[in-house]
Design brief:
Elements: E1 2-4, E2 16-21, E3 27-32, E4 35-41, H1 42-46, H2 67-82, E5 89-92, H3 99-109
Parallel strand pairs: 1-5, 2-5
Antiparallel strand pairs: 2-3, 3-4
Length: 110
């Protein structure tokens, strides 16, 4: 997987893309050849309102599930629903909320 700048127009249309947004109302999406096949808000998978991908819920309190496990389960669901088992590009939509959050998400994609 090649990580791409989310604001770049350089992703070839004939490709598969897995995109992550780890902030408030975290989500993940799968795209093939420019068509969105699956979008999953993590709160739907974990039944936690306003879930953030770094491991907090609506109150900002820590969740019992670690961030790497949260994203592993989300990726599995999107792979299952989209039918894509391998992705050409990964896009991480960043937030400016601090080093801990960014480090947690980047550890997940390495």
């Amino acid at each position: 997987v090649t990580m791409m700048n989310p604001f770049s127009n350089n992703v070839p249309k004939a490709s598969t893309v897995l995109s992550f947004f780890p902030g408030h109302d975290s989500s993940i999406a799968a795209v093939r050849d420019g068509e969105v096949l699956c979008v999953l808000e993590l709160e739907r998978l974990f039944d936690i309102r306003y879930m953030a991908g770094w491991g907090t819920g609506s109150t900002g309190s820590p969740l019992s599930t670690p961030p790497l496990e949260i994203w592993r389960r989300a990726v599995e669901m999107v792979v299952e629903r989209s039918g894509i088992s391998s992705f050409d590009y990964g896009i991480y939509v960043p937030l400016n909320v601090g080093e801990v959050h960014n480090a947690a998400v980047m550890a997940m994609v390495q």
